[in-house]
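Anyone else keep sequences and structure tokens together like this?

Example one:
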Amino acid sequence: MGTEETQRATLEEVRELRAEVRELAEELKGRMDSEVLKFSEAAAAIGCSTRWLQGEIKSGKLKAHRVGRELRIRRDDLEAYLERVKAS
């Protein structure tokens, strides 16, 4: 493979990587725009007790993030959890 062919191949790889980075950046931006709920707000939103919700988090069925001493739940994660529960 000649130098020009190598350069073209490398340039094409760079273009593909840039496109992937743009897609990932858009996905990340969408995730960061998601509303974050306090633990008690999430429980109230779906009409359950905080104790029950804590059990769902501990079992790994619902994602939550600790911020300091408090748990936070992304609204997207809560909605995805509800969709999974409805489907089963």
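And example two:
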Amino acid sequence: MGNNEACKTVLAADDSAVALALLSRLLNGAGYRVVTASDGIDAVQQAYRELPDLIILDITMPRMNGYQVCRLLKRDPAVSHIPVIILTGADSRGTEFWSLRTGADAFMFKSAESGELLVAVEKLLAQPFSGFGPVAGFLPAPASPLGPEEILSNVCALMDEELYASTIERIELKTIQQNLRDGVLTLNLGREVTGANQALCDMLGKDELDLLVRPCATALGEPAGTSILAAFEAALSGSEGVEQETEIRHRSGQMTHVAVSAVPLRDYLGATVGGVCLVHDITRRKEIETLVEQMRALDKAKNDLTHMIVHDLRTPLTSLITGLQTLEPSPCLVGVEHEILNISIAGGNTLLGMINDLLDVSKMEDGSMTLEISRVVIPELVEEAVRQVTGLAEEKQLTICAQIELEIAPLDADLDKLRRVVVNLIGNAIKFTPPAGTITISACLAPNERELVIRVCDTGEGIPREAFGRIFEKFGQVQTRRAGKTMSTGLGLTFCKLVVEAHGGRIWVESEPGQGST
């Protein structure tokens, strides 16, 4: 400290005369005026009498320890601004934590170098004083130092106040814990029960006193005891968040499905002293899971039955169509008879197509259909698809235009399924395009040059925006603006969606009512 600075006063309190002498010599040598005290009450009186610039306290002193002195001074606005260093030789666990919790500005061991203490003193004295507001419920400082009885009375009042606050906090915590719907169990490192809330006691049909200070496995019984211990051990090993599913047995024998998770319980220094286990009743979840499994089983049985019926229909229907086709060139059929035969064959082919689509969709949904990958030339693919639907387009006097970029490289895909996709899309466009309309098929690379974009555009009535997602659903149907007309997409677009997605692609619709669809 510079000689031109005002002499600062330091109050040093220690019950050791040797320690006080050494501390006084060090501080005097640095230019500080030193006032000493040999016990806690003397330290408080000297603080009020001298109003020092800094206070150095030992922890263990007669009549009042350093913790109590610091807490008492820091609660009084008249002296709370004075910096406090707790300097102790007690190297016990938690001394630094509790020293700083009392309001001390710094903590040091007596074994530290003397230069370190002087640096800490200078640093605290250099800090600007910001002051403290008055503390509610605390009496203002008297004009003269407090007597021993008043000091002890204030310490007792402070301890009562803190005890009351601590008790209220414990009551609040207990109230919250007792009103939780989940069970809460606390264990110590000996795996003994140290606490259980009402929800857990209700699951067991026991009182908390029946569980306390008993080994976890014994208190909770099996299988819950083993599962909770496993969750506890996982938490202690650092695997927090691990959940164990088990059952808790009630005293009456009733079982409750629960999920158990645990976290370590640590003290104020971070050392693990036990664990907290949360026991969540999952009875409702188990019931829902059982219902879901039953619904899945029923759905599978329904799908298997549908698949069997549809599959068995295909063979006789194919035979029927084949028989009708053998009659088609017969010279015995003329006029209306020939027309009826053609209608029958067309209806049979439509029904057979629906059966094939349904079987293929079912296979793709359950993953039993595999893709037969080969090199696919896009212009040839589109040309073949157009050829298959040309007859349908001519019947409605529709024009089909193809706009294919010739430089498109061959694609690795399932040729048959991809061709059926394009045929379905063109057939769908033919179905919903009025006579003399136009259907345009185009294929080009996307701007990212990693995707091939195939478009089928029609000049039909269009699709409402709210139906864009529904048309790709199985058996999805869309009502158009024309009264009585349903845009039945059946299974065709569902098949298209599944095939495109199986190739890693995507399919969507762009449309405005009255302006056609793409």
